[in-house]
Amino acid sequence: QRAEWAKLRNEPTVTPDGHHVELAANIGTPADVAGVLENGGEAVGLYRTEFLYMGRDQLPTEEEQYKAYKAVLEKMEGKPVVVRTLDIGGDKELPYLQLPKEMNPFLGFRAIRLCLEREDIFRTQLRALLRASVHGSLRIMFPMIATLDEFRQAKALLLEEKAKLAAEGTPASDEIQLGIMVEIPSTAVMADQFAKEVDFFSIGTNDLIQYTMAADRMNERVSYLYQPYNPAILRLVKMVIDAAHREGKWAGMCGEMAGDTTAIPLLLGLGLDEFSMSATSILPARSQIVKLSLSEMRQLAARAIELSTAEEVVALVNGHQPRA
Ligand code: PEP
Ligand code: MG
């Protein structure tokens, strides 16, 4: 099996009936890029920038961030890199920000909500990203977007910083794609509207599942409700992908589900364009996908979303799939 995976390292991910998808990696630091390339990653689909802010006693400077983003872009040698802006709050705290304790941190002041209020923090990150953008193929993604207004505000701040940099004579790329995480049900439901304004979607199933099922992803007692294969989740995923495609945009996924052997046939069939996962899952996923016919997986996915329970979905997939 390992020999088979090794052979696929430099191959594109194409189904027997000629459909190409992109297999990307989730990373947390520039040092993770080596593993992405070793494992045949075609892109970075999620760079979680929180780690730049964590384990220290003050905010990272624009220069520190610029260096980190530049390093990732350069090491990826022109392959796309999706950088997610700061997603702090929830389970990830920053002691030096001294945020008040909340009753429901996962429903509270986090990610883009914090960034739109603390513009100083957000603008610094955006400037560092814009400056780094000339060193590779940068895509910027905002986390925890719940309304179109949040996206518009965040985009306006990005454009303001870009104009300021231009006035200072600092170049930034004009090719930066701008997208959002779809991890809040309201955004999945409104995907048709968002698709007119964003360049891409990346579905964050880790949070989308917890918010759709109202089941804390960290709470063992309700973990039975944390159901990636629940048809409710599959239907939301389908809405997002279809909405993107109707506007000529692409849809990816960067939650754990994207690298899950049982989910992959369904996601392929639903038309997902980009799968972003831990680097070590890439070659196993590629060896699975190159054996799956897109037209069969389309039929499989169409049947799955008509089923009533997660168990039925799993049984359907297991009955269909050539086992690796
Ligand atoms: C997600 O919610 O699916 C996601 C990728 O983001 P995180 O796991 O960092 O919340
Ligand atoms: Mg998330």
UniProtKB/TrEMBL annotation:
Subcellular location: Cytoplasm
UniProt-annotated binding residues for phosphoenolpyruvate: 48, 84, 206-207, 217
EC number: 2.7.3.9
Binding site for Mg(2+): 183, 207
A GO biological-process term: phosphoenolpyruvate-dependent sugar phosphotransferase system
Domain PEP-utilising enzyme C-terminal, first and last residues per copy: 3-292
Domain of life: Bacteria
Residues annotated as transmembrane: none
Primary location recorded for the protein, binned into one broad class: cytoplasm
Alphabetized GO MF terms: kinase activity; metal ion binding; phosphoenolpyruvate-protein phosphotransferase activity
Keywords: Coiled coil, Cytoplasm, Kinase, Magnesium, Metal-binding, Phosphotransferase system, Pyruvate, Sugar transport, Transferase, Transport
Cofactor: Mg(2+)
Catalytic reactions on record: L-histidyl-[protein] + phosphoenolpyruvate = N(pros)-phospho-L-histidyl-[protein] + pyruvate
Residues forming the catalytic site: 254
Any GO CC annotation of this UniProt entry: cytoplasm
Protein family according to the UniProt entry: Belongs to the PEP-utilizing enzyme family.
Main function: General (non sugar-specific) component of the phosphoenolpyruvate-dependent sugar phosphotransferase system (sugar PTS). This major carbohydrate active-transport system catalyzes the phosphorylation of incoming sugar substrates concomitantly with their translocation across the cell membrane. Enzyme I transfers the phosphoryl group from phosphoenolpyruvate (PEP) to the phosphoryl carrier protein (HPr).
Protein name (database record): Phosphoenolpyruvate-protein phosphotransferase
Organism this protein belongs to: Paenibacillus chitinolyticus
Range covered out of full length: 249 to 572 of 572
